[in-house]
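Long-time lurker. I teach an intro course on protein structure, and each term I like to show students one example going from raw sequence to a predicted 3D structure in token notation. This year I'd like something fresh instead of my usual example. Would anyone be willing to generate the tokens for the chain below so I can use it in lecture? Attribution to the forum is fine with me.
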Amino acid sequence: MSVLQVHDLHVSVDAEGGARPILRGVDLTIRSGEIHALMGPNGSGKSTLAYAIAGHPRYLVTAGSVTLDGADVLAMSVDERARAGLFLAMQYPVEVAGVSVSNFLRTAATATRGEAPKLRTWVKEVKEAMASLAMDPSFAERNLNEGFSGGEKKRSEILQMALLDPKIAVLDEIDSGLDVDALKVVSDGINAVAAAGQTGVMLITHYTRVLRYVQPQHVHVFIDGRIVEEGGPELADQLEAHGYERYLPTAGQLEGAGA
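-- Reply from a regular --
Happy to contribute to a lecture. Here you go:
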């Protein structure tokens, strides 16, 4: 069983005028086969956590630690983190002109597995994974994310996750821009990967609609760079009913903080 541990993580972002603190002491543990929903309003720092774990150079870790099976993730380069078993599905996947989906997937699999997959078995793997996501086989020959709709980009991210079989998958707002049909397909893909028991999933979202199809065992409320409450699926139901208002500072608290 693999374990990702985030302990007292503080992160700042490069900004005009100097580094600006975003994360203010995050503690989180994710194990193989678990689905964790990280929920909070826009601007609360959820994506900052994802990018810090993945090693985005704009995000500076000022305190705390991130380990994967005891290994220091923060000491690894971006590609070393991927080879160690970390996967990030970005909210806005970039277009890669001149590189087909098929070539990208095989190159990525070679890097993470340490050797090139045998072509015959690889073609079968890709076809089966694409079929499970209701993707036309011709999709594999298109340039990565070039001209893709929002739904196609998100299916492509889940396809990558299924084929790379990571230890920990961080899915940053994988539900954004999806219609109901695409959301169901993407959710089925997430559930299938988690059910296999080898991958722990961090599902970052500020809406509860994806949780109608992907049920997390753990829900974390993220406000102002911190996890302020944790619970089970029932916590997501409470957020659906009442929103995040009760977690936000009142005017009086803000005045006191500034005094």
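Some talking points for your students: Confidence is low (pLDDT under 50) at residues 251-259. The helical segments are 46-54, 78-84, 101-113, 119-132, 150-164, 180-195, 233-242, 251-258.
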